[in-house]
Amino acid sequence: MDGNEYVDFHNGFGVMLVGHAHPTVVAAVQRQLSRGTHFAQPVAEDAVVAEELSRRFGQPQWRFTNSGTESTLDAVRIARGFTGRDRIVKIEASYHGHHDAVLVSVEPPAALMGPVKAPVSVPMCEGIPDSTVELTSVVPFNDLEALERVFASHPDVAAVILEPVMMNIGIVFPDPGYLDGVLELAHRQGALVIFDEVKTGVTIAPGGASQRFGVVPDLVCLAKAIGGGLPCGAVGGRADVMHTISDGRVAQLGTFNGNPLTMAASRATLCEVLTPSAYAHFDALAEELAGDLGAVIDKHRLPYHVVTAASRGCITYRSEPVRSYRDYLEIDASMAYLSWLYQSNRGVLMAPGARQAM
Ligand SMILES: Cc1ncc(COP(=O)(O)O)c(C=O)c1O
């Protein structure tokens, strides 16, 4: 509107991994546009995309949705149906979309979040029933003892849902062994593990965090970048867990699920654009950015550091790594906001606020 031009480092919250209007994706969508946009029937691309996701994430079965919210909503319901239990455990501060069960302790205010050994489940906004909040237990990231305590006091846990790499408080990596530990604890109690890979998905490795860390959960949620810029989502999982859908025990529904336009874009994105050389390119860019930004930080002796993971990256405005939300709360966010404003005024569009990674 104002005639300004920006280099886009926001990328639509990471959706536009392949860039805006990539010619291969545009051609695939245009081809499908002229053949029809919606049939509410399976299309051939559904199977091609599902097979490609299986290859990348090691999950044999997939269902499609239209957003990350729908993917985590379906995964929670599948886990509840499979286990016959109601409780879920989530990580303090994580965002998994806007359905009630997970809108709990999404960056809770410090005054309400309770002690670190017993975090309080805090609804994110009005309109979420207390009975739903009560069924969502909260633990800090990278804290297996906290998870053990929840399991000890709650025998009704259906699933632990987590972002295997947290991406809404900068980028927070799992400690070595943490993801394996979550799986081991959950399975010992008969609960499932859901990786929310909506952001990490095809961005930090071809098969996301599952592949990067070699840890295969029971269910994986995807969305964002897998659709090349169209509304999209997918849930993948173990055959016996996904069987709850095919045998009719759990409903997984949606008029636009697996619709032809999204599937055409997704097939082109996954099979033609996000090739091994694309990932080598992401790694090279990450190395260059981390090197140059790190050199500026070192030169000025700033107490900051750079975190990258293939196509994702951020600056963390403190010297030590952040391991969980409570570490992150210690950061003075004003420099991050100032950086965002400075970049905005100089033609670089960053994700809004201090929290988001590129
Ligand atoms: C980790 C994670 N899960 C789920 C979602 C929800 O996705 P959507 O906005 O497509 O519903 C988001 C959105 O930012 C997310 O970051």
Features:
358 residues, alpha/beta, Aspartate Aminotransferase, domain 1, Aspartate Aminotransferase, domain 2, seven-stranded mixed beta sheet, 13 helices, 13% strand, globular, binds pyridoxal-5'-phosphate
Task: Summarize this structure briefly.
The protein has 358 residues and is an alpha/beta fold.
Task: Describe the structure in your own words.
With 358 residues, this protein is an alpha/beta fold. It folds into 2 domains: 7-20 and 275-349, Alpha-Beta Complex (Aspartate Aminotransferase, domain 1), CATH 3.90.1150.10; 24-273, Type I PLP-dependent aspartate aminotransferase-like (Major domain) (Aspartate Aminotransferase, domain 2), CATH 3.40.640.10. It contains 13 helices and 11 strands. The strands form 3 sheets. It has a 7-stranded mixed sheet, with helices on both faces. It has a two-stranded parallel ribbon with strand order 1-11. A two-stranded antiparallel ribbon has the order 9-10. Helix 5 (130-134) links the parallel strand 3 and strand 4. Helix 2 packs antiparallel against helix 10 (260-273) and helix 3 (44-57) packs across helix 10. The longest helix has 24 residues, at 276-299. The radius of gyration is 20 Å and the shape is globular. Bound molecules: pyridoxal-5'-phosphate. Pyridoxal-5'-phosphate is lined by residues 13, 67-69, 72, 95-97, 163, 196, 198-199, 223.
